[in-house]
């Protein structure tokens, strides 16, 4: 038997690692000696907020929910670089919230520990600018002076919405911004396209998410952005569920999603209030949260 109450082979006790069974008195001694390390794990994440809704027949397209990504070398929304992997403490509770899509409103934020993605901006109503958000909503139809698309949130996580066009009765509204591209401006009688989303392979398969919604024009509508952006006067009009896509016309935005990837040496505990599933990809586990709010621990 070695010291500190450990039974078995001699443990390693240093500022970088502690192995064994310790009493609270032993832990206190090790802490004072600078030789106790909390057990940690590295987690990669993709956190997408709820998409903003479209508004009225000639309102702007909804913006996609904010898109924040730390997996591999993949891009964060808005042209941002891959974010820093989170190092979490085992046995500690962390908050997870999956943002809902907006219904006649901007989308709701999604949260993973210290990471918050901002809900997508609602499209602007007639003669009104788009709302700011993770990606901005498109500016509404205006036959007087034109409108501006909503700005994208900070830190970088999406693109701005497109501008509404001033052409009298042939004006058109702007498309919502996407994670991967700016929303298209309305042009003469043609609604702006939604900004495209981004592809991520964090689950082991490439999936495109976070597209902005298109807008309606007097002659024709634009096309929804890839990755769940709604298409005005088309199908689908709403953002696709669980992608954070923006909603077109009066349709709601798509729900957000939180995806966490970590070594399969660890086990996750998911608290009440969250809807999730866990799969294995190679030497990692991937937990996907599709609804709710609550806490998790490892």
Backbone structural class: mainly beta
Oligomer: single chain
- Rg calculated over all Cα atoms: 23 Å
Shape: elongated
Total separate domains: 2
Mean pLDDT: 88
Proportion of strand residues? 15-25%
How do you describe this structure in short?
The chain has one helix and twelve strands.
Question: What descriptive keywords fit this protein?
Answer:
298 residues, mainly beta, 2 domains, 10-stranded antiparallel β-sheet, two-stranded antiparallel sheet, 1 helix, 12 strands, 3% helix
What does the model show?
This protein is mainly beta. The chain folds into two domains: 1-37, no CATH class; 39-298, no CATH class. The protein has one helix at 24-32, and strands at 40-48, 67-69, 86-89, 94-97, 110-112, 115-117, 198-200, 207-209, 257-263, 269-270, 274-281, 284-297. Strands 1, 2, 3, 4, 5, 6, 9, 10, 11 and 12 form a ten-stranded antiparallel sheet that branches. A hairpin with a 2-residue loop joins strand 11 (274-281) and strand 12. The longest helix has 9 residues, at 24-32.
Can you lay out the helices and strands and say which pair or pack?
Layout (H helix, E strand, L loop, with lengths): L23 H9 L7 E9 L18 E3 L16 E4 L4 E4 L12 E3 L2 E3 L80 E3 L6 E3 L47 E7 L5 E2 L3 E8 L2 E14 L1
Antiparallel strand pairs: 1-2, 1-3, 1-9, 4-5, 4-12, 5-6, 7-8, 9-12, 10-12, 11-12
């Amino acid at each position: 038997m070695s010291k500190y109450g450990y039974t078995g082979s001699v443990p390693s006790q240093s500022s970088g690692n502690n192995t064994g069974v310790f009493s609270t008195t032993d832990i206190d001694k090790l802490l004072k000696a600078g030789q106790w390390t909390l057990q940690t794990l590295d987690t990669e994440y993709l956190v997408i907020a709820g998409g903003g809704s479209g508004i009225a027949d000639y309102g702007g397209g909804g913006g996609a929910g904010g898109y924040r990504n730390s997996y591999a070398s993949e891009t964060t929304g808005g042209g941002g670089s891959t974010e820093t992997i989170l190092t979490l403490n085992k046995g500690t509770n962390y908050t997870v919230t999956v943002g809902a899509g907006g219904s006649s409103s901007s989308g709701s934020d999604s949260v993973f520990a210290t990471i918050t993605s901002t809900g997508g901006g609602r499209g602007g109503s007639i003669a009104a600018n788009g709302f700011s958000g993770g990606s901005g909503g498109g500016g509404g139809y205006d036959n007087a002076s034109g409108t501006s698309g909503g700005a994208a949130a900070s830190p970088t996580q999406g693109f701005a919405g497109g501008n509404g066009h001033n052409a009298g009765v042939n004006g058109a509204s702007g498309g919502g911004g996407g994670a991967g591209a700016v929303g298209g401006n309305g042009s003469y009688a043609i609604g702006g396209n939604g900004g495209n989303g981004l592809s991520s392979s964090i689950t082991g398969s490439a999936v495109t998410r976070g597209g902005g919604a298109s807008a309606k024009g007097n002659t024709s509508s634009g096309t929804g952005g890839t990755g769940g952006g709604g298409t005005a006067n088309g199908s689908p009009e709403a953002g696709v569920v669980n992608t954070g896509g923006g909603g077109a016309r009066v349709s709601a935005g798509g729900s957000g999603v939180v995806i966490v990837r970590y070594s399969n040496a660890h086990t996750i505990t998911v608290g009440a209030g969250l809807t999730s599933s866990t799969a294995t990809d190679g030497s990692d586990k991937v937990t996907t949260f599709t609804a709710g709010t609550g806490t998790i621990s490892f």
